[in-house]
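Morning!

This is the sequence you dropped in the shared folder:
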Amino acid sequence: MITIILKPKKEESLQRFHPWVFSGAIQRMEGKPAEGDLVEVLDSNRNFLAIGHYQIGSIAVRVVSFENIAINDNFWNRKILQAYVMRKSLGLIVPNYTNTYRLIHGEGDSLPGLIVDVYDDTVVMQAHSIGMHEIRETIAKAIVANVPEVKNVYYKSETTLPFKAAIEPEDGYLIGKETTQLSALENGLRFHVDWLRGQKTGFFVDQRENRLLLERYSAGKSILNMFCYTGGFSVYAMRGGAKLVHSVDSSAKAIDLTDKNVEANFPKDSRHTSFAEDAFKYLNNLHTLNQQYDLIILDPPAFAKHREALRNALKGYKRLNAKAFEFIKPGGILFTFSCSQVVTKEQFRLAVFSAAAESKRNVRILHQLSQPADHPINIYHPEGEYLKGLVLWVE
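The structure's back. Tokens below.
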């Protein structure tokens, strides 16, 4: 195994179990690793620190073990089983009620660069590092061997691997075959999942508990679901007894999927209307329509995927939330989210605060939301807390 020696005092983050080694911390390499190779990381006195996957870029090593042990099939099987047992013990897998959950959440499960979502008997696996890409078949076998419900493993990493890597990944089934079961069950509701062409792995599993909270507040309300994607919040709102639900997304494909999901759970229900339209254009048109809502959901895609875009992202969140404050009725409720990892909870809250102050309305925080238990945050890797949400009462 190739050895990486760190500069003096650069071992401190690894001693605190942070799972990344930055390229600037490296003093030298003994050997020439290829991208995806396992490497041993030592401090400047040659004391063992960790083993991880090497990759070209600012994050040079993603740690898979802080113990000096063999990284073999048994290691990967044990990691997958640990992740599954945790989800099972937390009651996240409920037959005939919830068969959709995240099995592996990267650093949160001490498997940096790996995302695995379960949809009934099929998992969708994404690699975000070359190391995980190189062992994709090993991981797929470990999943099927340790998760009793899973029969099919679909690999979807064409858009998630580092673009500089000299590889040409192809999406496709690693185990099993294309299934006709293109739906998922979540809290008793049925959703069509397009893992072949949809965003991420096909469905935003991370909003499961927040959708359930929304349902509690929906009875008798007129509701606007912005950036609806698959219509998850809309379906929960309807089960909660909303009197009217409007779903908005700029993607016609997303609107088609939303309509299918509403129809699957509430056939021929006239309470729901969808609009394939840009979010700000739709909100601006509300002036003409003189339309206001009792409850608004803002769940936009990531406004900032890197730090260079942070300033513009915060302006975007402020502008979007200001529009929501403009079109929410007195006594209304706003569910507002950011899934941008580079935006901190404090920065997002300040952007929403600025929008509230601009609106000159009295606003109270009812809930501060995050990601669910199947998207765990490694306590040594706070960067893993990417989903931020606020539920606000607007007078």
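Headline: The first strand starts at residue 2 and ends at 6.

More detail when I'm at my desk.
O.
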